[in-house]
Amino acid sequence: MPSRYHPLALFWVLFGFIFVFGTLGNLIAIIAGVKYRKECSPNMSAMFLFLSNLAVSDFLMVILCVPATFVSQVVVQHWPFGHAACVAVSYSQAVSVFVSAYSLVAISLDRYMAIIYPLRLPSGLGRHQAWVVIAIVWLMALLTCVPVAVHSDLIYYDKSE
């Protein structure tokens, strides 16, 4: 039975779902993290800050990288945005991935410390300490990804070959 649908229709639907649910889901997570952070104990607010930071990173990935990737990979099959956007999207994508990874490491270390030292750190880091860790996470991600920005380049291929 022949298909009546365009072969790329599945990609359109999948990217649409990723964009809509990624945007809404991460916005809800950010809002919930900010709202409920104030209503919980100071030590537990660190976890809400870490989770909100993770949601911010994922939100930036969905907003900055998914549309550009969709257009370049599915719609036109080449990079139409120029060299500066190529570098910016590559760098922001790498930073977002590294912030997510480093945030998960920070959450794991916070929980590890709370388990290993239950009397000194019964609920993990405090609010101020969490902000310091988040700043370090972003700084590390921004610095780790500098080579991506420096070495990203737009390469043109001759389609006639």
The helix count comes to 5
CATH topology descriptor: Rhopdopsin 7-helix transmembrane proteins
- What is the number of E strands? 0
The overall average pLDDT, rounded, is 85
| Uncertain stretches | none
Q: Name the CATH homologous superfamily.
A: Rhodopsin 7-helix transmembrane proteins
CATH class: Mainly Alpha
Number of domains: 1
Class based on secondary structure composition and strand pairing: mainly alpha
Q: What is the N-to-C order of secondary-structure elements (H for helix, E for strand)?
A: HHHHH
Helix content: over 70%
Main beta sheet: none
User: What Rg is obtained from the alpha carbons, in whole angstroms?
Assistant: 20 Å
Principal-axis shape equals: elongated
Strand content: under 5%
